[in-house]
Structures are given as structure tokens and as C-alpha cells.
Amino acid sequence: MAGATLPTPLERASAPASASQRCGAAPGRGAPAAPRRSRFSRLPLRSAALSVLSLALFVLAWHLLTTYRVNIYVRFMNVPSPSDVLASARTALASSAFFDHVYMSCRRILYGFLIAAAVAIPLGLLMGRFRLLKELVFPVAEVLRPIPAIAWVPMAIMLWPTNEESIVFITFLGSFFPILLNTLHGMATVDPVLVRAARCLGAKEIALLREVYLPATLPQIFTGLTVGMGVAWVSLIAAEMISGQFGIGYFTWEAYSLVQYSDIALGMISIGALGLASSWAIRMVGRLVMPWSAAR
Amino acid sequence: MTAIPLKRPVTTETPRGTAPTRGRIEIRDFGLRYETAAGATDAVSSVSLTVEPGEFVSIIGPSGCGKSTMLNALAGFLKPTSGTVAVDGKPIDGPGADRGMIFQQYSLFPWKTVRENVEFGLKMKGIDRAERARQARTLLGLAGLSQFENQYPDALSGGMKQRVGIVRALATGPRILLLDEPFGALDAQTRLIMQQILTNMWQRLKISVLFVTHDIDEAIFLSDRVYVMTARPGAIKAEVAVPLPRPREPALIMSSEFLALRRGLMSLIREESLKAMGGEINDDAMKGLAANFEGQDIASAL
């Protein structure tokens, strides 16, 4: 409905403007073209241009601050310039070692995140459905939730036989609670009339969960997944910096130890890009899984 | 238009004009009492009513009189604290697809297309994908909704959503249709059209309908009989037969028979509505409200 009516406010907004321009031309002609042009050219193009501009300004500021070695309390003299980073990116992208780091980090994220989603979503659905389960699990979750994933590092190393498993565990912990809490919140806001309608149509418990509660909760689940993915990266990088041997977090920390300053920036930018790519991927999956919300 | 290609042994295969034999609703000495902080309160007390197979019966009453409570008991969402609720002699035990229900709030699943919504009850029955798609398409065709089958409910108007809701409730071939102020959220024009669509479907399917409303015109226009309920605790105040001929056209509401029924029901309802407002508006207060200030403002009149 919203999708269909979207052009209307634009039409209204642009109608008086174009009417005053035309000034006596045949009314009604050309009017449908006006909103279309404004919708396609003005909005997305404008925001795209502004994004490019904002990034360009950022790089320019970075460039100026580093080439002139600005030193106003904050010291830019050792900070690598954009061209330094570009040069080290060229060497890094030519070697397989850098890709190994990226691959290791992505694999850890994928395992930790997928296991967290696979546990937290069903648990959240069941906790939302059965009060006893919620009352049993919720106190534990509330106590564990405020502990940052980084604080789990020593414990994780003790708990798990290999380093790899402890890092995945920390990534899992980071994304687990946002997914669980958002799923629970989604369950609490399921429209009861939909549940009643389903039961009137003969739906039993399992069908209710699968056909009503799950799809009704999906928007909040995906909010949880997006937040969880962000926290997963935070936790992963921290864990890799402390206990890793591979991974993009380790790469960044190692660059600092080896006084390879431009690699620090390269590592940071890579982490940013990977984070961006993973949240984009979740959004795409969300659109595939919830085709009805695309129409809104 | 009589044959509906669904497995509906009673309703479709009965030749037109023969009375259906299933779908008798029987509520006897229905009472619902619930505990509050201030003690036990009766929401509904000793209501008895019946709906004969194939009959269209409405319940009207002031808000909070427990009309919806009885529908919920019939649907199987709550159990009466006293009395019995039965369909075809069998006491109700939980919700089921043999009783279709339409709610005032739009209750289409927003994540399913129109056709998937209509298919839902059939899916719950375990009918395979191809067969339920065929049945849903047929039903949507009969209801004139074919061109919307692949749309999501968000793209539909309120009246359209309720039409799909009715088709969805009928898809499983229920013996009984329960409607809880289904057109309350619609504008007056859409409402009239929906009422005609509903009567039309009801006449073709010959199922029993129990319709809850607070709109007197709607109740008369649609029903064979109307039960009037009292203010809380809800009880049956009157049972009014509506002997108007069918099919009923919208012009009927201007006829003297209709207006006479309307006048009778109005006065019955009015008493109860005043009571329902907790004596806030008694006769004295009404006199006060009727005071004529003859064009002066209140301050100078005082």
C-alpha cells in the first residue's frame, strides 16, 4: 500500500511548482513526468553524490593532516597518508597472506554468527511462546548479557581446547544476546488476532510457531541479526588481537608491533569494509526472506 | 452459482431450497465470571440462544455487554464458567476449522499473499500444494478477487481485506460462521457493499451465521433474527424476528417494515446503552442536556 501511494506526496509537492512554471500550458500534461524525474534523479542520485562527496572530503582531510604532519595535541606525524595505505594495500592484495587473514576472520564470523542465530532464534521463539522456559532462561541471560565478549577471552581460552574454537565462541557470545533479545521482543509484539485467526483455521502448536510466530517476528529477528553481526565483529577483532594467530584483527595488531603503520590503517579499513559487507548481506537475505515487507 | 467445488457434503449437495441439517448452535445458561482485584464480576449471566442450521442471527447490545465473549466461547477461545456451548449437540472443545471466524481487526497474515491466506486452512488440513492452490483460486474467482491473488494484504483496502478474510474462513467449509463486528472499521458505503456480499455468500452456502454488531441497521438488514443484550452483566433482553423478504436490496432500509423494526430495537438498545454508561446520563441529565439557551451563550443564560 505504502509502495503504491509513495508517488502521491511527491506528486503533490511538485505539482504546484510545475504548475507555476507552465503557467497557462495545457493542464495535466507533463505533470506525470515531473514526479518521476524528481523521484529517480533527485533522491537517489543526490544522496549517492553526497555520499561520494562526504567520503572524498574525509580522504582529503586525512591527506592534508598527514602530508603536513599536523600536530595539534593529536599527533598525525606517524599516521600513514592515504597514498601510503594505497601502496601497502597494493602489496597486501598481491600476497596470499592478507587474504588468508581475511578468510580466517570471515570463517570465524560465519561460524560464530550462524551458530548464534541457530541457537538464539529457536530459543527466543520458544521462550516467547512458553512462559516457563522464559522464566527459567531469562535470569541467566540477564546476568550474562552485560559481560562484554572481550571479558570472556581468558575464560574462553580455558574452556575450549583450541584457540580457533575459543575465538568462534567469543564471536558467538557477541551476537547471541542481541539476536535472542530481539527475537523475544518480536514475539511479545505478535498481533494476537493473527494467532486467533490461525487457530480458528485449524492451526496447532507447531504450525502456529512456523506459520505465524516466526514470520511475524522476522522483522525483529533481522534487526537482531544486524545488531548481532556488528557485535560479532567487535568481539572477533578484540579476540583476534588478544589471542589470535590469524585474522584481520591479528593482522592489524601485528602491524602495530612490527611498526608497519600503513598496515594498521589497511587493517582498519578492511575491518570496516567487511563489517559493511556483512550487514549488507544480512539486509539482502532479509529482503529475500521477507518479500512482503519490500512492498511497504 | 450454487455449486462450489469443495468437499462440502451438506451444503453443496443439498439442492437449493432444502433446509441444511448441520450447523445448529446452542448456548444454554451461558455465564462468564472472572476474578478482579475487587472480587468476582459477571461479564455474562445465564444467556441462552440458538441458531438453527442455515439461519442468520445477530446479537446487538451496548459495548461491554459480552457479545464478543460468547463468540469467543463458540470459537473455542474461552470456556464458560457456567452453562454449555454446543454445535450440533457437541460441546465446544478448543478452536477448530469447523467454525470460521471473522474479526473486526484485519486478520490476514501480512506475510502471505491473498491466495496463500485463503490456502491457510486447507494447508492446516494437510491438503497438498497443487490441490489447495486450485481450491483457493476457485474460491477467489467466485468472490471476484482473482486479480488480487498474488498481492500482499498491505496492498489491499480495508473492505478488500475483509472480503479475503471471509473467503479464507469459508475455504475449509465450516458449518458455522462467527463474525465479530467485521465491518466496524469500514466506511458506510463499503459497509453496505460488504453486507450484500456477505448475505449473497451466506445464501449460496447455507451455513449458520452468528453476527455480532452494535449497528441496528446492519443487524436488521442481514438477519433472520436479532438478539438484544442487556448492559453488563450481559443477558438476553429480547429476541426479535426479522420477517423481511429476501433477497434484500439496499432500498429496503427505507421501507416502513424496516423502520418499524428499527424503532423497536432502538428503544430497547437505548435503555441498555444508558445503563451501560453507568447512570452517567439519567433522565434528569437528559433534561439538562435538552435545555434551550435560545441563542445566548451559557454564561449569560446562567
UniProtKB/TrEMBL annotation, chain A:
GO terms for cellular component: plasma membrane. It comes from the Bacteria. It is found in: Cell membrane. Keywords: Cell membrane, Membrane, Transmembrane, Transmembrane helix, Transport. InterPro entries: MetI-like, MetI-like_sf. Residues 25-36 have a biased composition (Low complexity). It is a multi-pass membrane protein. Residues 1-36 are annotated as: Disordered. The chain crosses the membrane at residues 45-65, 110-130, 136-160, 167-188, 221-243, 264-282. Residues 102-282 form the ABC transmembrane type-1 domain. GO terms for biological process: alkanesulfonate transmembrane transport. Coiled coil: none annotated. Its main location: membrane. Probably part of an ABC transporter complex. Probably responsible for the translocation of the substrate across the membrane. Belongs to the binding-protein-dependent transport system permease family. This is ABC transporter permease. It comes from Methylopila turkensis.
From TrEMBL, chain B:
Coiled coil: none annotated. Residues 1-21 are annotated as: Disordered. InterPro entries: AAA+_ATPase (IPR003593), ABC_transporter-like_ATP-bd (IPR003439), ABC_transporter-like_CS (IPR017871), ABC_transporter_ATP-bind (IPR050166), P-loop_NTPase (IPR027417). The keyword Nucleotide-binding applies. Keywords: ATP-binding, Nucleotide-binding, Transport. Residues 25-256 form the ABC transporter domain. It comes from the Bacteria. GO terms for molecular function: ATP binding; ATP hydrolysis activity. SMART domains: AAA. Pfam families: ABC_tran. Belongs to the ABC transporter superfamily. This is ABC transporter ATP-binding protein. It comes from Methylopila turkensis.
